[in-house]
Specification:
Elements: H1 16-29, H2 42-49, H3 53-65, E1 69-72, E2 76-79, E3 100-101, H4 114-127, H5 142-156, E4 165-168, H6 171-184, E5 189-193, H7 198-206, E6 210-214, E7 216-217, E8 220-221, E9 233-236, H8 250-263, E10 266-270, E11 294-299, E12 311-314, H9 320-330, H10 336-347, H11 350-376, E13 381-383, E14 390-394, H12 401-410, E15 413-414, E16 433-437, H13 446-460, H14 464-467
Parallel strand pairs: 3-15, 5-6, 5-9, 9-10, 10-11
Antiparallel strand pairs: 1-2, 4-12, 7-8, 11-12, 13-14, 14-16
Helix pairs in contact: 1-3, 2-3, 4-10, 5-10, 6-7, 6-9, 12-13
Bound molecules: pyridoxal-5'-phosphate (PLP).
Amino acid sequence: MPLGLDLHLDLTRGRPGRSLEEALRAAITDGRLAPDTRLPAARSLAADLGISRNTVADVYAQLAAEGWLTARVGAGTWVAHRGTAASGARPAPVRKRPWVGLRAGIPSTTVFGRREWTTAVRQAVLDASAADLGYPDPAGTPQLRAALAAYLARTRGVVARQDSIVVGHGYAELLGLVCRALRNRGAERVAVEQYGHDSHRRVIAAAGLTVVPVPVDEDGAEVRLLERLGVSAVVLTPAHQFPVGVPLAPDRHRWLASWAGRTGALVIEDDYDGEFRYDRRTIGALQSLAPDRVAYVGTASKATVPAIGLAWGVLPGWLLPDVLEQRDLSGARPSALNELALARYLTDHHYDRSVRRLRATYRMRRARLAQVTAEELPGCEVTGLSAGLQCLLTLPPHVPEDAVLREALDRGLRLEGLGSFSCEGAPGDLPPALAIGYAEPAPAQYDRALQLLVESIRSASPAGAALARPRTR
Ligand SMILES: Cc1ncc(COP(=O)(O)O)c(C=O)c1O
């Protein structure tokens, strides 16, 4: 069988050979046929165009002789690489050493159990019924929602039923759906923690809501201030404030549940890294205190990999239909096959194994970070290490965040300062600090990333020598 590939070519009238030759040259020159694109077998293209096979073979041979195509006898014909000089494009400068990163919120992608995920995908596809392969339930597949209800109740104490769960692409999508549902119900103002992702604040604002910052102290967000902020909802990271790293104090959990009950407000609980605690103190989900007033949102990105692209919301019954309506209007929904694979991954306990494996890795990394800071960076302090994938490294008062970030960039290290997480126009009260994510580097690069961090902080210090203490042996 000749290789039949569809190929769109604008053939002019006249001699078929000449016309095909010109059409192929034009398609290659203007980039429609990129280098390495495989062309159909001569016999197949000839049949599609209604011309003779020999004409096509002659054109292929001619263009190969001119360097437009490469042909391998018995294998096929491809569009050739013709160098970049002719196109005028300049090659990008190449860094001598690859970039490394210590960015908050970026999970490891190297510890992921690819084999287990492949098994789950394979099993999900083989087991899928004909109905499973059709248009899915807009809230998500029943299999995944059932698996999540059991998992979240067992590991996070979430009060969840299959039919209170909506599956989404990621946290930000679910946040957007909830915010648009609230806006439709008349909400105008939503509180957020003083420090957090700007992209999440923009999602809230894009739903037509005003974002109102709440300060963060050593007990988490100062939630009692909500009393006088006139907001309809608040978005929080109670298990491990992002990026400051403190958990929300238990009395604040209770206060919030009662405030929401009293005022009818909604708490949006972002449980992005709730599974990763390193001490024995488990901090269950806030949602369990007030399931009717809390929209709990979790993500698969930290316990698996972001490329899976799935998250979930456990929603109060009164909010769920409105969120599904927003899902309908958005026209987007996750892939059902991906959901079925995650359901399988959960019920076969690969998800639990993945969390435990990552926890062990992160536990070692945070210990190493604490050790390096203690030994090499006097004057710096690491806090927020008891959970999650990131912590706060507070800089000495005379070392500006910006200077450290510049030094890091020069060394090929991607870092983020606490300042970049602060709400615009409302600078936070915390001293200059770095939000250090210890999950990002590949295992072999972690020590190098820490060494670059030490160098960057030392070089940014006006009294650099004061920071540089020789390592004790
Ligand atoms: C604070 C916070 N919330 C939520 C998320 C989850 O986002 P996603 O589901 O898009 O991976 C992240 C990821 O970085 C995060 O840092």
